[in-house]
Amino acid sequence: MTREGPGRIFRRIRQYSVAALVFGLAVGCSSDGRSDPPAGPPAGAPADLGALASKIGCAQITGKRNVRDLRQGTCRTPQGRYTMVTFGTDQNRDAWLTEATKWGGAYLIGSRFVVVGTPQSLGPLKEKVGGELKMGDAHH
């Protein structure tokens, strides 16, 4: 058996913590296994990331990520840098927000989408795309 130094142990703990967070987000965005019929319409494809970017005024979306019920991309305009995330359902959006807001930040929350930016850049954006502005938890 190999002895590990404190640096390696902390790296492993960090790796396992990140893996647990990713797993928790994936589980939070998936079915809970119950066979009850859905209360609303069936989940659809995530809201259109390109349409959201166009409303914001983004010329190009970078850093695109596509997973089962989530689309993510970033863009920059003269007003600021934005991370846009779209979802197939508001329930999955809310599960994502529960985890994301723990890390602080400013969020513009709309139907099946979230835009992350600064409070100063998201305020005027609210008029273009709708939604409600929410601040994440403060870390000191």
What does this structure look like?
There is one protein chain. This protein has two domains: about 30 residues; about 90 residues. With about 140 residues, it is of the alpha+beta class. This is Lipoprotein. It comes from Actinomadura graeca.
Task: Outline the fold blueprint.
Elements: H1 6-28, H2 49-56, E1 62-67, E2 70-77, E3 80-87, H3 90-100, E4 106-110, E5 113-117, H4 119-129, E6 132-135
Antiparallel strand pairs: 1-2, 2-3, 3-5, 4-5, 4-6
* N to C succession of SSEs: HHEEEHEEHE
Class from secondary-structure proportions: alpha+beta
Side by side, the strands of the main sheet go 1-2-3-5-4-6
Can you give the mean pLDDT? 77
Globally, the shape reads: globular
Protein name: Lipoprotein
Task: Give the key terms.
4 helices, 6-stranded antiparallel sheet, globular, alpha+beta, single chain, 140 residues, 2 domains
In short:
By secondary structure, the protein is α+β, with helices and mostly antiparallel strands. It is 38% helix and 26% strand.
